[in-house]
Design a protein that fits this description.
A hairpin with a 2-residue loop joins strand 16 and strand 17. The protein has twelve helices and 18 strands. The relative contact order is 0.18. The longest helix has 18 residues. The chain has about 475 residues and is α/β, with parallel strands linked by helices. The strands form two sheets. Strands 1, 2, 3, 4, 5, 15, 16, 17 and 18 form a nine-stranded mixed β-sheet that branches. It is about 30% helix and about 20% strand.
Amino acid sequence: MYDLVIANGTVATAADVYRADVGIKDGVIVALGRGLTGAAETIDAAGRYVLPGGIDSHVHIAQPSGEGIVMADDFESGTRSALFGGNTTVLPFCIQEKGEALRTALTDYHAKAAGNCYTDVSFHLVISDPSEAVLGQELPAAVADGYTSFKIFMTYEALRLNDAEILATMDTARRTGALVMVHCENEDAIRFLVDKFTGEGHLEPRTHATTRPVVVEREATHRAISLAEVVDVPVVIVHVSNGAAMEEIARARARGRPIVGETCPQYLMLTEDDLSGMDWEGAKFVCSPPPRDKAEQTNIWRGIETGIFDLFSSDHCPFRYDDDRGKLNPKGRNDFRHIPNGIPGVETRLSILFSEGVMKGRIDLPRFVAMTATNHAKTYGLYPRKGTIAVGSDADIAIWDPDAERVIRHAELHDAADYSPYEGIAVRGRPETMILRGKVMVRDGALVGEKGYGAYLPRGLSDRAKPPTE
């Protein structure tokens, strides 16, 4: 009757925790009950949590990163690492470079992913060149084809849009029902501070954090929300690092604005002091926005506990540290301005939140599932196919041992970077068996599924964004 039964486990969704067996047929969950029999294979999950596979909706894989710089992970290593971390779906970014057609960018990016994935994948677009043709024709066509979310940047000279461009791009989102994600930092303020501090001879990695203070993120968050209000569209504020930006989200919601808030592990576990490492090791922690201080870590936990944050993503953006094409490229080893921004983290995201959140009593198990799977599926047009354990949903399941204890060591991870920013952190709880659309991909910590089983997912419109009816 069933291809697979997961028996005797404790099932958790975003709404409930209960004991049940899970019956799977043809890659889909077809039964939830007790004492399910007649399966070709049965996995005994006694003493284990049976959770929806994680969805990491903010990862960077095989992404163009500037002249002479190469991102550490391709789709093979990136999705393998994601799988071992408890994830069954990841959403990386397909970047439109200046002057490039969206369809060209998508064709090239699909070619990188094809046949190489251990998890399912779906792509966000990054809009860097919002020409009339892009906004009037190419982007609406892409949304109709299932690319229903896109990201805009308020920082990085090669990517950032000015306010007029942001408004025009948001208006296309309003017309098509696409969802806008925004990286909120004020580039002009950052340039002013960079010129000031480099003029005084400060070139070390720690200056990266100094030149991107809380205020430049808070101001840009306020502006992004204000521009979205002008156009009347929902917006996702990604990788929030501090309490001031959180308050902008809270105030906007109090006015009735539909704002999705996202944060990441680096804002719980790292601080700006990590960028002061000896022998340029601070370069390992250079990312944007940068880690803050202990007080802001407390603020981010408050946001997780109180619901300001809907999404907990990794912002996995891996570069090798000791590499001429990575963090220590010839310019980057002497000047923070040339250190590529980003840190690896797709494999450690879930373990960190489970250990520090669930096992330490900060959040309950349904909140963990919501922040790491269900809300991602709902936000990005994948629910209820993904992100939950329910009859009719894809059988994407992570079986967790809640009591397994380990210390994070990069040598035991599966990405293609050469370090982890979370090296030496002790965590409790880990995914030990991973199932993707009914197929066992990792069994008791060992890879058994093949590369290429992961599929590309066209998406529907977000629960947060629908096109106008007029």
